[in-house]
Design goal:
Belongs to the HypE family. The chain is an alpha+beta fold. It has 8 helices and 13 strands. α2 runs parallel beside α3 and α5 (186-196) packs antiparallel against α8. The strands form 3 sheets. Strands 8-10-7-11-9-12-13 form a 7-stranded mixed sheet, with helices on both faces. The protein has helices at residues 2-14, 54-67, 88-105, 160-170, 186-196, 210-222, 237-246, 268-276; strands at residues 35-42, 48-49, 52-53, 72-83, 108-117, 125-134, 151-154, 200-205, 225-229, 259-263, 285-291, 302-305, 311-313.
């Protein structure tokens, strides 16, 4: 039965995206001297949601992690942990999402593993992925490369994924108006890097910890300060309303198809034009600026000016506002 599950159901559905030979290791061709690797595990609840499921998130999250490092994603591994009793129809649905996302990202699944655990030992299905990509550009993206005058760009609505998943879990009624932003963004990132080159300092996907965590990590790594403008942050009214109801801060909510880029001032317009060419990034906007630490409360500081003109500090979040959502 295990053999039938792996070679029939799993390998059968993954089809052309799967190039494993059922050996203990995959033998891969790498077209460059430098590679990027990342790994992640996915425990999404519920497994299926608006605009995606655990399969799409697994591929998109891994591919996006490779792409924001400047790499061209090439290969994925896929490990599946199934709880006894998980419906085969649901497994097939997840695998079809894995296949479709892999096709969209132009990556191949080269190895994998499948385990079935006893009822109650897993929450339906868990996925683990490892991604490999190749670094082909002559420059390196780094959170340590920020300079005073650089602009901070966000590519989409903040917090939508978290609010959608929470609404589904708790029956809040927002899930029809606020969908998850889950998306493969490697093609978007490649276009921006092709156009702006080393004018892009760094890119990060705004997942766990939200934008507030990302910009704090940037500021600390580069020993600079970052100033944000709350009035231009892309936040859907329904998302803001739901966050207020739940007592959480949108600045720290997870996304699954949203990027934070820091670019040189002279490349800002070119970067926005490249982003706006993609439907996933139609809301891309400049939301802040990098300044010298001495000019804004010290190195590693993030401050935000509200609509009323008040300036507040965006602290690095300690602990978690919510259970893991991606």
């Amino acid at each position: 039965m295990s053999q039938e599950l792996i070679s029939g159901t799993i390998a059968g559905i993954l089809g052309d995206t799967y190039i494993g030979e059922m050996e203990d290791s995959a033998l891969l061709e790498l077209p460059g001297p430098r590679i990027a690797m990342t790994t992640d595990s996915f425990v999404v609840d519920p497994v299926f949601f608006g605009n995606g499921d655990i399969g799409k998130i697994a591929v998109a999250g891994t591919v996006n992690d490779l792409a924001v490092s400047g790499a061209r994603p090439l290969y994925l591994t896929l490990a599946v942990v199934l709880e006894e009793g998980f419906a085969l129809a649901d497994l097939r649905r997840v695998l079809r999402s894995v296949r479709d996302a892999a096709i969209a990202a132009e990556v191949k699944i080269v190895a994998g593993d499948t385990k079935v655990v006893r009822r109650g030992e897993a929450d339906g299905i868990f996925l683990n992925t490892t991604g490999v990509g190749v670094l082909e550009r002559p420059f390196t993206l780094s959170s340590r490369a920020l300079r005073a005058g650089d602009r901070v760009i966000v590519t989409g609505f903040l917090g939508d994924h978290s609010i959608h998943i929470l609404s589904l879990r708790e029956g809040l009624g927002f899930e029809q108006r606020v969908h998850s932003d889950c998306a493969v963004l490697s093609h978007v990132i490649a276009d921006v890097l092709d156009i702006c080159g080393d004018g892009v300092r760094c890119i990060r996907d705004i997942t766990r910890g939200g934008l507030g965590t990302v910009v704090n990590e940037f500021a600390q790594a580069s020993a600079v300060a970052i100033e944000l403008d709350a009035s231009v942050l892309p936040i859907r009214p329904e998302t803001a309303m739901a966050a207020d109801m739940l007592g959480v801060d949108v600045m720290y909510l997870a996304n699954e198809g949203n990027l934070c880029l820091v670019v040189a001032a002279e490349e800002t317009e070119a970067a926005l034009k490249a982003l706006h060419a993609h439907p996933e990034c139609a809301r891309a906007a400049v939301v802040g600026e990098v300044v010298a630490g001495a000019d804004a409360g010290g190195a590693g500081t993030v401050r935000m000016t509200g609509a009323d003109g008040r300036v507040s500090t965006v602290e690095l979040l300690y602990g978690a506002q919510l259970p893991r959502l991606c």
